[in-house]
Amino acid sequence: MSAKRIVIAGGSGFIGTALAREFIRRGYGVTVLTRRPRPRYDGVREVAWDGAKAGDWVTELNGAEALINLTGKSINCPHTPENLREITESRVHSVRALAAAANFAQPPRVWVQASATGFYGDTKNNLCAETALNGSDALAKICRDWENAFTTANLPQTRKVTLRIGFVLGRESGALPVLAKLTKFFLGGAVGGGKQYISWIHLADLVQMFVAAVEQEKLVGIFNAVAPNALTNAEFMSELRRALHRPWSPPAPEFAVWLGSKLMGSEASLALVSQRCAPKRFREMNFPFQFTELAAALKDLCAKI
Ligand SMILES: NC(=O)c1ccc[n+]([C@@H]2O[C@H](COP(=O)([O-])OP(=O)(O)OC[C@H]3O[C@@H](n4cnc5c(N)ncnc54)[C@H](OP(=O)(O)O)[C@@H]3O)[C@@H](O)[C@H]2O)c1
Q1: Average pLDDT over residues 8-30
Q2: Which residue of 120, 174, 206, 285 has the lowest C-beta tally within 10 Å?
Q3: How many domains are there within the chain?
Q4: What is the rounded average pLDDT of the residues 210-230?
Q5: Is residue 16 part of a domain?
Q6: What's 96's domain CATH number?
Q7: Pocket of ligand 1 (CB under 6 A)
């Protein structure tokens, strides 16, 4: 019997690379939809698409076990009107194109769609479970449109799961290697007031959440994909300094964050917004978190950074 197939749209990046590795290890066939396919030697097939319209790629979805969609322009850029439009369209258009293609002869059994804890906007100190309201800032609105495109897709034969992903900590990519580098250069102070929450998740736990979403029929609907213990930025940076054996560093005031972000081509609000979220539904199903405490997660990751 041929292996069950998983299609990962936008699977060439940080999270997709880790997912492809794990699903291959579990015996699945993995196809990545990407705008720039290249030959690979790890068992993954890359197939061309443009992330917006139907093309030859639609046949990949026929009879697939699962579709995972991670597609989206990175939010780590200045949030100009033009960039915000691209951030939105790359997400909404890809969902719509996949939904049209999934209505093909034999639709995928399950579709796992990425979203973000940015859905809740600036949560201040309020702890947000999955039922919390949509925020009002630009990224919250983008998440709402992104999720709406998915939930309104008419796919009666496909189980649908949305993962609202937090701040993903990985060794090779994502934000942690950059933060670790700054901290090693004694620039690991609290950011802004330091009171804003960070809802982090270790990449290894996130990967197992995707596996659970694909393999367990009972997962349906929206799940916060975060670790159980969100920390303030000051607590997070203090743990990072400890993991990297660095002393106390002076905090970076807000104006320095704005200036630094401008120089680095990033967006200051990403570091200043508070995101305090709880993985209520994963807790209720006794998801076996490997890393519930940041200190253990950083010890694991920083040992090899
Ligand atoms: N990493 C995090 O901490 C985090 C947190 C919350 C939510 N998320 C969400 O999870 C998803 C995956 O995250 P990631 O960190 O793996 O992101 P990533 O490394 O940037 O990968 C996203 C992929 O989307 C594709 N893409 C980018 N711009 C596109 C565009 N304009 N049109 C079509 N495709 C485009 C790219 O694939 P090709 O260039 O190969 O086409 C890219 O590999 C994203 O939607 C992200 O918003 C991530």
Answers
A1: 97
A2: 285
A3: 1
A4: 98
A5: yes
A6: 3.40.50.720
A7: 10, 12-16, 34-36, 51, 70-74, 86, 90, 94, 114, 116, 165, 167-168, 174
Is residue 273 a part of any domain in this protein?
A: no
At position 3, the amino acid (one-letter code) is: A
The pick from 7, 15, 139, 224 for probing ligand 1's pocket by mutation, whose C-beta has the most ligand atoms within 8 angstroms, reads 15
* Cβ(161)–Cβ(170) below 8 Å: no
Q: Mean pLDDT throughout 249-271?
A: 90
CA of 249 to the centre of ligand 1 (A): 32
Task: Report residue 104's pLDDT band, with 50, 70 and 90 as the boundaries.
Answer: confident
Q: Is the dihedral of CA 206, 91, 148, 116 positive or negative?
A: positive
DSSP letter for each residue of 135-173: --SHHHHHHHHHHHHHHTS--TTSEEEEEEE-EEE-SSS
Name, in order, each residue with C-beta under 8 angstroms of 296's C-beta and a sequence gap of 6 or more.
none
Cβ atoms within 10 A of the Cβ of 15, count? 23
Mean pLDDT of the chain: 95
Q: Model-level pTM?
A: 0.97
Distance 246 CA to ligand 1 centre (A): 32
Cα distance between residue 166 and residue 227, in whole Å:
8
Nearest CA to ligand 1 atom 12: 70
Residue 64 lies in a domain: yes
Looking at residue 264, its pLDDT comes to 87
Determine the structural domain holding residue 79 and report its residue range: 5-172+199-228+279-290
130-135-136 Cα angle (round to 5): 165
